[in-house]
């Protein structure tokens, strides 16, 4: 048996070393992409002047991202409100506080479900469409053609879509919450037979404009920025092939969902601590 | 005067991957009024040369000059000014799919000028008339054939009366009539605008009829050049093989690979 084996040379690649190297390479790539996304965000802000000067470009995007999402947002809001009405009544009636149904429905929607669910729906409907549209424009050289015409694609294509999404998101969240409250009313008052005056007055007394409504609006604005940024970035960064656009669209929906939920935890902790 | 030379490449090198250059030392000149063809096998870097001229990618070495100005040192404003004097026709037209034919041609006029809508309307109709598609102004891009889309893209490319036109494979995938139409339009519009043009193409016969000068690119360099008559008469092996479309010659049919027999036998072991 040998007395002592020589220590392994540090430059000998082994499976562990290869894995660590692979992990490091992956982390560096992700970090680089994150840095690119941050620079892209700053570039969007820098090229937002055209969208402000020609607000029609942003209005067009509000139409595509916002107006055309109204049906899915409205119907989903109504259903979510109905479910809240049913589940809320079941629980509240056990404690003899069924009249507080309006408060429960409104606070749940305005603080949480309105901003979060409408942002998730927005990412699926409008965010994915934005990514696919920009990705296809890249794949079919439309962005390159624009650049060669001395027109900056970030100013003409990306920034108006970004602002269209950011403006639409809080409005959609408000509509979602309003439809949800109506859904709760349909279940609680029309179907179950609770007193309409109690439903509305309890809601009016319990929902605070600054703490509840304004915080909800801030949440939906932050989600709007995050989702639209992810959507336009993924489209712009998509590989210019059918597969590349398809992967980018999927990434938009998945990343948006995770970012919305993570941001929601953070914002809720900051906004509603102790209230 | 040197500053009137529309395009000049001096010892230009480029690689998308820094370790692998696709252009090694390219020298070429496009003189005023000329139509110049860039020819060579697929992937030899012809389209990249157009991108270098348009300033969408920077040269790794050498100088790319457009109208006497070095593209490599241009700032964003100078690039924009240069590009407003350059029109480009992309391989499949790159029309904006959400805009009608009329709005596609009007796009550069609306974005890059302060002209009123009535003036823009007249200019668009004139450009569409020049390519024979005034009657298609209300159609959407998906309603056009490949040849029509290419002609609309050409009308859009000349909307700002460019002094230099860049054509990326303008004849690819066209039927013989459309191909001849595009070829004729390229020549006529170049002469009518007093512009210069660069055509990246594989179509030898059509090019020889309309261009003034040809460059052949291979291995990242210009391997041959000359006028159409000179090219037709050339005995240079690469030019002969390319012009006659011969399968075997200096450009091999097979991609470089390990020995065929030993590779097959290695799989049997």
Short account of what is shown:
By secondary structure, chain A is mainly alpha-helical.
Please give a structural write-up.
The complex is a heterodimer of chains A (275) and B (269). With 275 residues, chain A is an all-alpha fold. Chain A has one domain. Chain A is globular. Chain A starts with 14 loop residues before the first helix and ends with a helix. In chain A, 42% of the residues are buried. In chain B, a hairpin with a 2-residue loop joins strand 4 and strand 5. Chain B starts with 6 loop residues before the first strand and ends with a helix. In chain B, strands 6-7-8-3-9-10 form a six-stranded mixed beta sheet, sandwiched between helices. In chain B, strands 2-1-4-5 form a four-stranded antiparallel beta sheet, with helices on one face. Chain B has a single domain, classed as Rossmann fold (3-Layer(aba) Sandwich), CATH 3.40.50. The mean pLDDT of chain B is 87. Chain B contains ten helices and ten strands. At the A-B interface, helix 6 of A face helix 2 and helix 3 of B.
Question: Secondary-structure map with pairings?
Answer:
The complex is a heterodimer of chains A (about 280) and B (about 270).
Chain A: H1 15-46, H2 49-53, H3 55-65, H4 70-92, H5 101-139, H6 142-148, H7 153-192, H8 196-206, H9 209-237, H10 242-271
Helix pairs in contact in A: 3-7, 4-5, 4-7, 5-7, 5-8, 5-9, 5-10, 7-9, 9-10
Chain B: E1 7-14, E2 23-30, E3 35-40, H1 46-54, E4 61-66, E5 69-70, H2 76-83, E6 86-89, H3 101-112, H4 117-130, H5 146-157, E7 164-168, H6 176-193, E8 196-200, H7 204-210, E9 213-218, E10 221-226, H8 228-233, H9 237-244, H10 260-268
Parallel strand pairs in B: 3-8, 3-9, 6-7, 7-8
Antiparallel strand pairs in B: 1-2, 1-4, 4-5, 9-10
Helix pairs in contact in B: 3-4, 3-5, 4-5, 5-6, 6-7
């Amino acid at each position: 048996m040998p007395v002592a084996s020589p220590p392994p040379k540090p430059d000998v690649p082994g499976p562990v070393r290869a894995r660590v190297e692979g992990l490091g390479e992956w982390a560096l790539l992700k970090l680089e992409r994150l840095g690119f996304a941050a620079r892209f965000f700053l570039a969007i802000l820098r090229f937002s002047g055209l969208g402000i000067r020609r607000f029609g470009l942003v209005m067009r995007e509000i139409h595509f991202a916002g107006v055309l999402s109204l049906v899915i947002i409205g119907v989903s809001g109504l259903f979510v409100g109905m479910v809240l009405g049913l589940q809320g009544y079941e629980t509240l009636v056990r404690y003899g506080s069924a009249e507080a149904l309006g408060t429960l429905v409104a606070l749940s929607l305005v603080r949480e479900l309105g901003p979060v669910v409408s942002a998730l729906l927005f990412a699926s409907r409008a965010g994915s469409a934005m990514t696919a549209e920009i990705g296809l424009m890249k794949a079919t050289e439309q962005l390159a053609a624009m650049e060669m015409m001395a027109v900056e694609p970030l100013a003409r294509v990306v920034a108006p879509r970004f602002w269209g999404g950011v403006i639409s998101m809080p409005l959609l969240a408000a509509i979602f919450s309003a439809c949800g409250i109506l859904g709760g009313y349909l279940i609680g008052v029309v179907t179950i037979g609770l007193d309409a005056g109690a439903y509305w007055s309890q809601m009016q007394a319990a929902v605070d404009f600054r703490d509840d409504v304004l915080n909800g609006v801030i949440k939906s604005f932050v989600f709007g920025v995050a989702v639209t940024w992810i959507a336009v970035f993924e489209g712009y960064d998509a590989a210019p092939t059918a597969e590349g656009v398809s992967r980018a669209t999927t990434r938009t929906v998945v990343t948006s969902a995770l970012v919305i939920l993570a941001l929601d935890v953070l914002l809720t902790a900051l906004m509603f601590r102790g209230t | 005067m040197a500053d009137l030379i529309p395009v000049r490449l001096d010892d230009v090198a480029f690689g998308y991957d820094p370790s692998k250059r696709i252009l090694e030392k390219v020298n070429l000149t496009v003189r005023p009024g000329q139509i110049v063809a860039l020819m060579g096998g697929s992937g030899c870097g012809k389209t990249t040369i157009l991108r270098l001229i348009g300033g969408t990618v920077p040269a790794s070495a050498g100088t790319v000059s457009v109208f006497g100005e070095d593209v490599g040192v241009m700032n964003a404003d100078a690039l924009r000014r240069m590009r407003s004097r350059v029109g480009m026709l992309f391989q499949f037209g790159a029309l904006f799919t959400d805009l009608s034919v009329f709005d596609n041609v009007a796009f550069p006029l609306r974005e890059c000028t302060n002209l009123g809508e009535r003036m823009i309307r007249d200019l668009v109709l004139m450009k569409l008339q020049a390519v024979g598609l005034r009657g298609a102004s209300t159609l959407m891009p998906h309603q056009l054939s490949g040849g029509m889309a290419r002609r609309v893209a050409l009308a859009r490319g000349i909307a700002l009366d460019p002094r230099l036109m860049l054509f990326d494979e303008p004849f690819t995938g066209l039927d013989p009539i459309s191909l001849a139409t595009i070829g004729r339009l390229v020549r006529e519009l170049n002469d009518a605008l007093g512009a210069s043009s660069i055509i990246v193409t594989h179509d030898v016969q059509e090019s020889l009829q309309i261009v003034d000068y040809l460059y052949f690119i291979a291995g990242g360099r210009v391997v041959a050049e000359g006028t159409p008559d000179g090219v037709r008469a050339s005995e240079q092996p690469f030019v002969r093989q390319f012009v006659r479309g011969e399968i075997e010659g200096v450009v091999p049919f097979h991609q470089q690979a390990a020995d065929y027999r030993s590779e097959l036998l290695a799989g049997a072991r």
